[in-house]
Each structure stands twice: as structure tokens, then as C-alpha cells.
From TrEMBL:
The lineage of its organism: Bacteria, Pseudomonadati, Pseudomonadota, Alphaproteobacteria, Rhodospirillales. This is Periplasmic protein, putative. It holds the Pfam family SIMPL. It comes from Rhodospirillum centenum (strain ATCC 51521 / SW). GO terms for biological process: DNA damage response.
Length: 241
């Protein structure tokens, strides 16, 4: 009598294991279905124009007589201010006047002879929203050269920098456009795969970039008045049958 009982118990155990395996398989399938996601990128761009110009005008004089060197830089400064006035850049647009004096003989670790003891550098910085006037003036520096004023600068040159400061005014609209473009791509993907688009699972706004409109190698965005603002948003959507 014990054999039929054992057979019945073994049968019930087998059925339980089989049922458990079926349920487990169903749960895995559901989890995988829930994880069906399409990740797409949406691009938005705007053509903008700079609204701020910053122009450092740097000139240097050297010599062994400090008074003479200072007098030379004072004459150069007067010439630069007259140049700006001729180009309709007012004096109040000059927001800073820097002065740097170097005495080479006072340098502790100087080596070799010194031809010019003093180096005096003056920098006038123009800051204005009138970018077109600054751009035009920066292309007409020959008059200063004729007066013996040589403008110099660091490795980036001595030209003006043009900035776009109204990014916050267009951010919301650009993010909406990028999301719309991402959704269109996701809907196409879903249609091609025989599914429907569900809700947004994850979204990444992306980083806003301000680029030169002329995409030429070596072009520095800050030197260009016309610019392109770009953002690429990444959005994950679920797919449903």
C-alpha cells in the first residue's frame, strides 16, 4: 500500500515543480516585456547673433627711461581713444584701463644683457552691446599702425570676443523641440518593430553648445558674431504591443 502513496506524492511534487517553472518563466517574460525600451536622441538648433562684444586693446612700449616709456604709452592711449571715437565707440564703453610695468633689472633670476630695461603695457577693454560697430572697427586698425601704435595680444590674438548672453531665453523652446524630434524618431522605430510607444522612462536634457555658424576648421566661436546654439536630448520610451 505504501508504493501507490509514494507514486502519488512524487506525481504531485513533479506537478508543483512544473507549475513553479511555468510561473517563473511567465514572470521573466513579463519583466523582459517591461524592459522593452527604445532610446533616441533629438536635436534642436537655433541660429543666433552675438549681443555682447568684449575687446581688449593692448599696446606695449619699452625703453631704458621710465618717464619716456610712460609718455609713449600715454600717447598710444590717446591715439586708441581717438580711434574708438572715430568709430562711434563712446568713452564710457571702455570699462577698464590696465597698466603693467616690468623692470628687467629688478628680476632676481635675470640672465644676459638687457637692451630695454622697462616694459610698460597698457590695456583698454571695450565692452558694449553694439557688436556690429566693434566688428567694423576691429577690421580697420591700419590707422593706428600709421600712428605707430602696434596692438599686441596673447596667443589668442587681440581681436574682440563676441558672446551670446540670452541662452536662457531660448532654452525651454529648444528642449521642447528636441523632445518632439526624439519622439518622432521613437514612434518611427516603434512602428517598424510592430509596437506602440508607451511613456517616457528616462530623459536627459543634454548640454547646450554655442558654436560658430561657419563650421570651418580652426574657427573660434568667440571671434564669430553669427553662432549656432545646439542641444541634443536623449529620451528613453517604453514599447508596448
Amino acid at each position: 500500500m505504501r508504493t501507490p502513496v509514494l507514486l502519488a506524492a512524487a506525481l504531485l511534487l513533479s506537478l508543483g515543480i512544473a507549475a513553479g517553472g511555468y510561473l517563473a518563466g511567465t514572470q521573466v517574460a513579463s519583466m523582459r516585456l517591461a524592459d522593452r525600451v527604445v532610446s533616441v536622441k533629438g536635436l534642436a538648433e537655433r541660429e543666433v547673433r552675438a549681443d555682447l562684444a568684449i575687446w581688449p586693446l593692448r599696446f606695449v612700449a619699452t625703453g631704458n627711461d621710465l618717464a619716456e616709456v610712460q609718455a609713449k604709452t600715454a600717447r598710444d592711449e590717446a591715439a586708441v581713444m581717438a580711434f574708438l571715437d572715430r568709430h562711434a565707440i563712446p568713452a564710457d564703453a571702455v570699462v577698464s584701463r590696465g597698466l603693467d610695468v616690468v623692470d628687467l633689472l629688478a628680476q632676481q633670476y635675470r640672465q644676459g644683457p638687457v637692451d630695454s630695461r622697462f616694459i610698460v603695457t597698457r590695456t583698454l577693454t571695450v565692452r558694449t552691446a553694439d557688436v556690429d560697430t566693434v566688428l567694423k572697427a576691429s577690421q580697420d586698425l591700419a590707422g593706428l599702425l600709421d600712428q605707430g601704435v602696434v596692438l599686441g595680444g596673447d596667443s589668442g590674438g587681440n581681436g574682440p570676443t563676441f558672446a551670446f548672453t540670452k541662452l536662457n531665453d531660448i532654452k525651454a523652446a529648444m528642449i521642447a523641440e528636441a523632445t518632439k524630434n526624439a519622439r518622432a524618431a521613437a514612434e518611427q522605430f516603434a512602428a517598424d518593430s510592430g509596437a506602440r510607444l508607451g511613456g517616457i522612462r528616462r530623459a536627459n536634457q543634454g548640454v547646450f553648445q554655442i558654436l560658430a555658424s561657419n563650421d570651418v576648421p580652426g574657427t573660434f566661436e568667440g571671434r564669430e558674431v553669427d553662432k549656432t546654439v545646439r542641444v541634443v536630448s536623449t529620451v528613453d520610451w517604453t514599447l508596448v504591443d
